[in-house]
Amino acid sequence: VDKPKAKLRADNTAFPVGGSVTLTCSVNPSSSSGWKYYWYIEDSGGLVSPRDAVFLSNGQIRVSQGGRYWCKGGRGQPVYYTEDSESVRIDTIVSNRPVVTLYPNWSEIYRGETITVRCEIHGGDTEWDYEWETNSTIKPPNQTEYRIRSASSSNSGNYRCKGRMKSSQHKTTEWSDSVTLTVSSELKIFHPDYVHSAASLTVSPDRVQHFTSDSVSLTCEGNFTEWRVRKFSEDGRLYSDCRRMTGSTCNIYTSKSDTAVYWCESGSGEFSSAVNITVQNDGNGPILVSPVHPVTEGASVSLSCSLRTQKILSNVFFYHNDKLIQNDHRGELNISAVSKSDEGFYKCQYSGRESAQSWMSVKADSSSSPVWLIVGLVCGVSLIIILLLLLYRCTTTNSETFSFTYYKLFIIQRHKCIMRSM
């Protein structure tokens, strides 16, 4: 017959400093009798003594010291011992309070972004080991912070943490309050024509195309104290960490991977219009100098062509939607009063070398625009527009301008259509 095994129960597994926990040991079947119970604590490596606990009865003690406890029973002469019980860890709760923080703490996190979930314990210089609890698919490692380099829906969930003293593993904090992380797979889309935001983005130098290793500054403007510059790259990835962010300005030393759509987002969730940045990989070829933001109808605009070392002053050919529109000795294309028909792709050619194409958008003069437009009409045709834009994107793979830019009158988010007056 196998030996019986002792069973250990605790009325709690943690208690505050100055508190206690009651432990009860028993042997099955409960009808058996005559057992004397022996108590053990891992830290002291032996029997629990009267100075370590209060012996309430033969099978029950009260302890006020954290540690890992177990018990066994014995009876008869010579003593017949049961198997040891499973051990129970008892922790002392210290007063230090952990807090879970998200960095950056933005109102919305999108698939592909980088975010850090951090456990902070305030008070004293104690060194801690960390434990996490979450209902997300992926559990964080037991470290002070969990850096998610490419967020996905698997990271969505509630997170809480606690600390355990390195110097005394049975002293622990309480669990922190839970913090919810929600990763959205749906991206807000803003066309540059959307200018009615309290946030704006300026680009210096003010042009779409740049050479590799150019210094480009993206500055967020508006009455906000916290900013991030977001980037939607050619390969469809969304980024929110500017490597060189100073205040409200993101500084880029351009490489081919910086070809993308950029926009600003404030800490309270305000978005600027989006702009295209295209980086010319051919160091010997020209770039088109064209405005980043939409040009207002009736305004004048000048397009020019530039090499890495100098602006080209003459003998430049200009194309609009692949149609040659100027081939004389001038170095600039000047449009004195822009109209909607001037919108489209432009490129320049010099000494047989062509620049990349860039899209120049034309917006209506706000003084003559309607105050509101019919939401239902736009929502009704939006699906058709999207399909046409996607088709257009597929047929212009040589262009370094995203279909992202072509969305004009509406923002699509979570299958809703929101009308913006122009």
Automatic annotation (TrEMBL):
Q: Does the keyword Nucleus apply?
A: no
Any transmembrane segments, and where?
371-392
Domain Ig-like, chain residue ranges per copy: 4-71, 98-182, 286-361
Keywords on this record? Disulfide bond, Membrane, Signal, Transmembrane, Transmembrane helix
Q: Which Gene3D superfamilies match?
A: Immunoglobulins (2.60.40.10)
Question: Is Magnesium there in the keyword field?
Answer: no
Q: Which GO terms describe its molecular function?
A: transmembrane signaling receptor activity
The record's section on SMART domains has:
IG, IGc2
- SUPFAM superfamilies of this UniProt entry? Immunoglobulin
Give the source's domain of life in one word. Eukaryota
Q: Where is it found, in Gene Ontology cellular component terms?
A: external side of plasma membrane
Q: Name one Pfam family in it.
A: Ig_2
GO BP term, example: immune response
Q: Which PANTHER family match?
A: FC RECEPTOR-LIKE PROTEIN 4 (PTHR11481:SF64), IMMUNOGLOBULIN FC RECEPTOR (PTHR11481)
The name this protein carries in UniProt is Ig-like domain-containing protein
Which species is this record about? Oreochromis aureus
Q: Lineage of this protein's species?
A: Eukaryota, Metazoa, Chordata, Craniata, Vertebrata
